[in-house]
Amino acid sequence: PGWVHLFGELQGIEGIKTKRQMEILPYTVGKHQTFEKEAGNPFATGNLSAFAGGLDAKIGVTSDLTLDLTINPDFGQVEADPSEVNLTAFETFFTEKRPFFIEGKNITNFQITGGDGSFSRDNLFYSRRIGRAPHHYPDTGDDEYVDIPTSTNIIAAAKLTGKTRNGWSIGLLESITSKETAEIDFLGNRRHETVEPFTNYFALRLQKDYRQGDTRIGGMFNATNRNIQDAEVDFLHRSAYTGGIDFFHTWKNKTYYISVNTVFSHVRGSKEAILETQQSSLRYFQRPDADHVSLDPDRTSLTGHGGTIALGKDGKGHFRYSGGITWRSPGLELNDMGYLRAADRSMQWTWLGYTVWKPFAVFRSIYLNVNQYQGWDFGGAHIFNGGNINFYTQFKNYWGLNYGIEREFEAASNDLLRGGPAFMYPGGWNQWFGIHTDGRKKIYFSFNGSFYWGDDQSIRTKQFGAGVTVHPNNALSISLYPSMSWNKRQLQYVDTIDYNNESRYILASIDQKTFAVTIRLDFSITPDLTIQFYGQPFISAGKYVDFKRITNPKADLFNDRFHIYSGSEISYDVDEELYSFDEDTDGIFDYTVEQPNFNFLQFRSNLVLRWEYKPGSTLYLVWSQERTGTDSIGDFSFGNDFRDLFAVKPHNVFLIKFTYRFNI
After folding, report:
1. In this structure, how many other beta carbons lie within 10 angstroms of the beta carbon of residue 468?
2. pLDDT (tens digit, 9 = 90+) per residue, 374-392?
3. What torsion do the CA atoms of 554, 555, 557, 558 make, to the nearest 10 degrees?
4. Residue 524 in contact with residue 532, Cβ under 8 Å?
5. What is the model's pTM?
6. CA-to-CA distance for 337 and 202, rounded, in angstroms?
7. How confident is the model over 519-541, as a mean pLDDT?
8. Between the CA of residue 207 and those of 109, 167, 211, 220, 638, what are the distances in Å?
């Protein structure tokens, strides 16, 4: 049951005048980097120093609305993203950690589909787009070296957020980012190449509450405009406009609800830009069996739509349920300012939950869930179909336990062949579990795991993670979270080769092992002086064997959908690290692919000392380190890989940041 209605009411306060507060926080930052010196590379000198300054401001426009401003912001004290090896066709979603964009993000949020599935990340506004890494990387030849910025500089940004007394939620954001260039050196001769154009980002989110919040109506509009003047970045959209409207209504004392939203997108650009959009991993218009879409190289714009309709019961009684549909049209494109994992798909789902919140026996509460879902592309092909049962229980001693089992059925995969025909991918069984101790205690433990067994031995994965958090006292917290995963699958994409005017989709079996440890420390020496540490060593190795080409992607039997190259059809050149294929066994190699084995080693850490020497004014001392190593052996060796990782010369960043607060 809800608990907000149990809150008390504070009455009788009168005569307090509203004060419009203004805070201005200029900053200066000094940064020194050390890294491996590279012979012949004029940019890799082994060290680099820089100084910068900027301004943050917070203005109370009214008692309900706050204006945040930033000029040339610096986020050097922000924690690094976790390491990963992404072997899928889809972009990884990273959470926002920069303070300017975190504050008020609940107002600028426009999530298209709720829940925790693959649709749930889709959003009209994804603030990580602002200040992202440049889109373009220059092509270089022998004896050429490149100096390229790791992120796009935010010249300035302004954000107005708040909720008025009459129920209006307002979120307005405006930001401009600079044109970024890479400097290229060839035997002492320098040239510059644009890697990111000057860009303007605009977002407006409005929402109005009615019936004391039981009914909400809102909308959002976003605009991305790029000043593209160089051919190198003409593959980007010149303009991108997205928006949507949403409606939420609950009745019978918040027992039942209906939620509806719809979104649109319209992008414009050169023929090259829109062709790349059509061929991107979000939609693959070039698929030879996709009759419901067409690849048009002359297009200069693309329009799409999406949305969600959900109806359910979320109160009163032990049972909860919901059902709905969600869709993303083939032309939907949100990724200039939002996040969209994939277009050209729709989904139907139902959920039934049963909750026991009254303690009995050894249980404090029990949550039981049953889910069913299935999806189609806009051509009517089934692209996923399944269901699961899961539960979570908390015991009277505040320990917790969860378990789930899921069945996925065979369905068409539109992305496995990266623009090739749909492939009938086998179904499988997924199981997961977790257990944790009482989080209120000074020592907290957790352990979780998951397993996936694909039909026809198509996939075998397992993952385990354990965590321990120690709170010796109120000032210190230490946590350690190691994890290990094993990934074996028969169909890992390698390359697409043109042979005799036909496409050869080359795949292989992969055996991948990944180990990581996340370490955190928070120490409050005094209320004004704190130390934070984040570190993550990460090791992943993948070995490719049993190379195969797709022959009949929709054959009835799994093994009839591909042909495994025999010893007489494939040869490996150790020196060149190249596989050569003789498809017709005439003794002449027909095509080649690079050996795809990998070892990826990375360590990222942030150590931050923060001293608030006077209220609102802060001194930061930051040490960030990254070590990254790669190899093409493919074998996982815990001891050797760890030694190799810490034998890599680190890239260190030492930063001193000074802010001073003027309260006007």
Report:
1. 15
2. 999 999 999 999 999 999 9
3. -40
4. no
5. 0.94
6. 9
7. 98
8. 11, 8, 14, 9, 52
